[in-house]
Amino acid sequence: TTSSWDFMGLKEGKKTNRNPTVESDTIIGVIDSGITPESQSFSDKGFGPPPEKWKGVCSGGENFTCNNKLIGARDYTNSGTRDTEGHGTHTASTAAGNAVADTSFFGIGNGTVRGGVPASRIAAYKACNATGCGMEALLSAFDDAIADGVDLITISIGGESAHSFETDSIAIGTFHAMANGILTVSSAGNSGPEDSTVCAVAPWILTVAATTTNRGFVTKVVLGNGKTLVGKSVNAFDMKGQKYPIVYGKSAASSVCEAENAALCEPECLEASLVKGKILVCASTKGLKVAESVGAIALIFKSLKPDVAFIHPLPASGLPEKDFDSLVSYIESTESPSAAILKTEEIFNRTSPLVGSFSSRGPNTIAVDILKPDITAPGVEILAAFSPDGELSQGDTRHVKYSVLSGTSMSCPHVAGVAAYVKTFYPKWSPSMIQSAIMTTAWPVNATGTGIASTEFAFGAGHVDPIAASNPGLVYELDKTDHIAFLCGMNYTSKILRIISDETVTCSEDKEISPRNLNYPSMTARLSVPHSNFTVTFNRTLTNVGPSSSTYKSKVVAGHRSNLNVNVTPSVLSFKEVNEKQSFRVTVTGSDLDSKLPSSAYLIWSDGTHNVRSPIVVYTG
Amino acid sequence: TEDSQEKQVYIVYMGSLPSRVDYTPMSHHMSILQEITGESSIEGRLVRNYKRSFNGFAARLTESERERVAEMDGVVSVFPNKKLQLQ
């Protein structure tokens, strides 16, 4: 990507501390729509042979060749590993693409595009095509990726809601990845801003929401009266500032449609002779499908997602409702309304990071005491490698090597890149240690909005910070046994868990195996009924991964709508050696919880250098 | 009547690969399918084997076959194959 790594502080070249030998030995498995092997982002110039641990193959089909950067390819779609969607190429390059200078989308977003760990290797597992991603194919991809010897898996795939773990192919695949020491990073989903939509909910997955960076794209609309409206799109078409007549859909209704439907630009509702050569104005995004067929030269539409710029097949700009209403007023009060749609400009987003409206929100509907998503990362207007075979937008005839996409698919490989970066400093760390390092060092997100869209259910522990994550001080560790105990607490039987783990399992009746006591880097409790007064406890253990002798003091800071009283026992933890563990208990009391929104606070363990921060979230409903 | 029932792809999840050395997952999967379907040749039924990192398979089954597989020892879950989406 051309700006997001800078935004997060992972600067190019010598400005960032790296461990190039280990980075080069790190293999990222990308389960997606395939990859474009010829992309400069995956050139193997300067790369030596694959690491000795690599046990995979290059089985990409006809006209598909791996190299020392793209070391593995498998296909589960019967169409070869070549990416014809663009999505897999984009995610792979975001995580681990080479640095490629002077890259842009027709001049937009120009810069040096690069992944988080440019020296790392990539193995592509194609489980998706234009119709989607079969669960059976996804499981095969996990089955192979784990056995092939990847170090990390990134998967930007999901459904519209969560499934119980035993019927969720991604939860199953990631469980076995975790059991084999492989961290999986997954997208949270694109079903926001409604609550309970996050789809990757297992605690052995690092689940990522999507936020803006400080670089945004806007497309201005200059009206005939001189007024400028600021819309969103990625518009590479240069209309040279010339103004054209504009026509509102409802003024161009065909004889078979009501004006209301024509205003929305429903198919078959527009009279081409009234639109031809003009800028069409539509009160919905439906105009994107019909504008060109009725001869419009450009489109202005009311956007359902006015916080995100998308690519369209013709000059276009999406306006928020208020500006759209202003445009309609202008049209209706002017005899010959006209406008110009300008080429997209880059802006400095002062308010970033903000969670994208599309990003799926918690709470977790399966494991209600586990906060999901875990973390947020750049996922809005991300420029990265693309497949020349991919369609930029429906009906678009242009073909590019780099493109702009938005989604939790884009944020997920950012965190995978950070996980790989952290792993280069600590190659022996378990998945949970990497996950903890990333979560406890996250930036606080400024939740300025209202409703569930701007709570911890939107951004988890906060925004990923790659540099801080590489020096967390303390980590919350979990292993397979802990997750099995957690599943006991989720009422899975000992018999089933023995089959899942191939180990003897005896689930006890002990309250201590409550899912709330999983040694997770966040602490969440759902109270089943609204309580006037409540007390909940969380047991946790921290492992010292910083200086051998260190003393951490606890501090609790208020979160959003915080009416929580938090007591930490003991309040000071003293470590005398590396890898030493210390346990503590958090007791949260309060009353009168909001019935719709979570209450939160943050526990911070600090030694003056490291700040190990965990969200504490209590909710009801 | 069994033949006339509509078949769909189900995923049969069987947990970790057993650690005993004589276990061969593909043979086990095929014997399960043969037992459930009563067919000696399961070509056209078996969609995928999971055998390298965990245990299971995907196969075309009728609803009644799905129910019988789900009751078998060593089977954690049987669930319909669905399409997920790039995000």
Question: Any key phrases for this structure?
Answer:
heterodimer, A: about 625 residues, alpha/beta, eight-stranded mixed beta sheet, seven-stranded parallel beta sheet, 15 helices, 31 strands, B: about 90 residues, alpha+beta, four-stranded antiparallel beta sheet, 5 strands
Brief overview, please?
The complex is a heterodimer of chains A (621) and B (87). By secondary structure, chain A is of the alpha/beta class. Helix content of chain A is 20%, strand content 28%.
Describe the protein.
The complex is a heterodimer of chains A (621) and B (87). With 621 residues, chain A is α/β, with parallel strands linked by helices. Chain A contains 15 helices and 31 strands. In chain A, the strands form seven sheets. In chain A, strands 12, 13, 14, 15, 16, 17, 18 and 19 form an eight-stranded mixed β-sheet that branches. In chain A, strands 2-5-1-8-10-11-20 form a seven-stranded parallel β-sheet, sandwiched between helices. In chain A, strands 24-31-30-26-28 form a five-stranded mixed β-sheet, with helices on one face. In chain A, strand 30 and strand 31 (611-620) form a beta hairpin. In chain A, helix 4 (135-148) packs parallel to helix 5 and helix 10 (408-425) crosses helix 11. The model of chain A has no long low-confidence stretch (mean pLDDT 95). Chain B is α+β, with helices and mostly antiparallel strands. At the A-B interface, strand 7, helix 4, strand 9, helix 5 and helix 10 of A face strand 1, strand 2 and strand 5 of B. Strand 7 (132-134) of chain A pairs antiparallel with strand 5 of chain B, so a sheet runs across the interface.
